[in-house]
Design brief:
mainly alpha; 17 helices; disordered N terminus; Stereocilin-rel; cell adhesion; Mesothelin; signal; membrane
């Protein structure tokens, strides 16, 4: 919602710390300009303390106002989502590029759509910062990339083998070519998880975010005992939908009995 008229007076009368999250979330550049740079920086810091969620337009405006006289020395006191609109070179005065991307990993990835130019540029700069010349990424670099791992192309997923799997399992969705690459890597068995036929319930728990990507050819290789144990003990804590869980349950049923027998005992959804 937009800020009420006389916003600067409201700040003066109530004090920034007492402003509600809804008021802080609805600020506008026009209102912010009337507050003054120093007071506005206090406002921005209050937004971080109150964990205010801001959209692209609000963050762009906030960044413009906060950096009016250069990058503040106490940059880490400001909302982390601002980093999505900043470049590592801008951040250089307060930290190195590796630290920059560690902090980016703590920002809200949903602020920028996957196809947003800023998000694509962040990935390119991250790869340059980590000095990754080819398409192979190790576990340490994957950790530094944070959620930017979710934007890596299928060539990186294939070349990196199992190094990216645990990080990829935190991603909410994938492009079709990414899904195919993930399936190929998992099917190969050349990962720390081994071939699907050797997976345990714990393995499935570790890879739960990737289970929707698995096709029948992989699911059928997983030991039924592992699937059953995972469904009973871990599935409730996963982000899988009922439909996705139903697909897994279906793989537990002998093919000729799937239609007439229903779900195995204790695994009804």
């Amino acid at each position: 919602m937009p800020l009420p008229e006389g916003f600067s007076l409201l700040i003066f009368l109530l004090g920034i710390p007492r402003l509600s999250q809804s008021v802080l979330q609805g600020f506008t550049c026009a209102a912010a300009s009337a507050v003054g740079a120093g007071r506005f920086q206090e406002l921005a810091k209050a937004m971080r303390k109150k964990k205010v969620r801001l959209g692209q337009d609000e963050l762009s405006c906030l960044l413009k106002m906060v950096t009016l006289h250069g990058i503040p020395k106490d940059w880490d006191s400001y909302p982390q989502d601002l980093l999505l609109f900043l470049s590592p070179s801008d951040y250089a005065a307060t930290g190195n590029c590796s630290q920059f991307f560690i902090n980016v990993g703590k920002a809200n990835m949903d602020v920028l759509p996957r196809e947003a130019p800023q998000r694509q540029q962040l990935l390119l700069e991250a790869l340059e910062c980590l000095r990754i010349p080819g398409t192979r990424i190790n576990k340490e670099s994957a950790e530094l990339l944070g959620w930017l791992v979710c934007d890596l192309g299928e060539e990186y997923i294939r070349s990196s083998g199992g190094s990216l799997l645990k990080d990829l399992s935190q991603c909410g969705s994938f492009l079709p070519e990414q899904e195919e690459a993930i399936r190929d890597v998992l099917s190969s068995g050349n990962t720390t998880f081994g071939p699907p036929a050797a997976w345990s319930a714990f393995t499935l728990s570790e890879l739960s975010g990737l289970i929707p990507v698995l096709d029948p050819s992989i699911l059928q290789q997983i030991p039924k005992r592992a699937l059953t144990t995972w469904l009973r003990n871990f599935a409730w804590d996963s982000s899988l939908s009922r439909e996705e869980l139903a697909t897994i349950v279906g793989e537990l049923l002998p093919r000729r009995h799937k239609r007439e027998d229903g779900c195995p005992a204790g695994l009804e959804i």
